[in-house]
Amino acid sequence: MDLNVTYLTLGGHVEIDKYRYLYFIIILTAYFFIICSNGTIVYIIWFHRNLHEPMYIFMAALLINSVLFSTVIYPKLLIDFLSEKQIISYSACLLQYFMFYSFGSSEFLLLLGMAYDRYVSICKPLQYPTIMKKTTVCIFLAVAWLLPAAEMVAAVIMSLNRKLCNFTLKSIFCNNTIHKLPCVPSRTISIYGVFILISVALLPLLFILFTYAKILTVTYRSSREVRKKAAETCLPHLLVLINFSLLCMYDIINIRLESNIPTVARFIMTLQLILYHPFLNPIIYGLKMKEIHKHLKRLLKIK
To answer: Strand order of the sheet with strand 168-169?
Structure first.
């Protein structure tokens, strides 16, 4: 071990000596399923030209983001389950922290892009080809991935040279608990954290809720066929949004409000945070989106 490198202990694990192989099998199976299921739907969207529409492009981007989000956490978790000590260098921890929140924030912005696409499609159908051009979609995707990354770079830079007095994280990976490690709490980082939360989570969430309220108002006054089509395309997005928002709420309550949650409860909730969303996304879109479901059934028949 390099003496010049600061190492942190990941202290959120529960009875790892007793259950390490069980944890390893569960996470490895989940990771394999996440890669295969998300990858299959992305392949279907890429392969079939009739799915090269903004809604499906945003969906593919969301599923790719889920795989990247999982890849930030799962490989390190698998190594930790088979290691005697669950440690990570401070620089690697900051990198994991940066990527975890970058991809997590991108999720909200990609869901915003999907919500806006559905809003234009249902509320302004005649203007849809003009508004949702290829350029518009590319701008949405670029902002969704680059804005959170740029904001998180600043957060990492502020955390780089701070003196640490605590070297144990109460988590199984590097999240906002790293801000509990320095000797002196930083008010600047706390305020900046609230700014990030508002800009890439709260404001997109409010915009998404506003667009779906408008869609609901328009479809309520429309024909049964329009209502059915709106439900088919909007319900999966809403399920994904609710699922991800609840998990993010737990992360905020656990970390920012310094909740004294028992280690076992925190461990279970943290596993849900990293398992549920990338695990459920392909299931929701594969079963609820009519076109995806149709192509998926054909693909499985061929296999």
So the answer is: 87-89, 7-10, 168-169
Q: Is the pLDDT of residue 265 over 90?
A: no
Tokens, residue 24: 């390893």
Q: Record the tokens describing residue 136, joined without a space.
A: 């518009």
Contact 167, 7 (CB under 8 A): yes
> Angle of helix 290-302 relative to helix 54-81, nearest 10 degrees?
60
Give ∠ CA 89-92-94 in degrees, rounded to 5: 110
CA end-to-end span of the chain: 48
Question: What pLDDT was estimated at residue 72?
Answer: 94
Choose among 23, 9, 3: nearest CA to 267: 23
Alpha helix segments (H runs only) across the chain: 16-47, 54-81, 90-123, 128-131, 134-159, 187-197, 203-220, 224-256, 263-288, 290-302
Give residue 67's pLDDT band: very low, low, confident or very high (50, 70, 90): very high
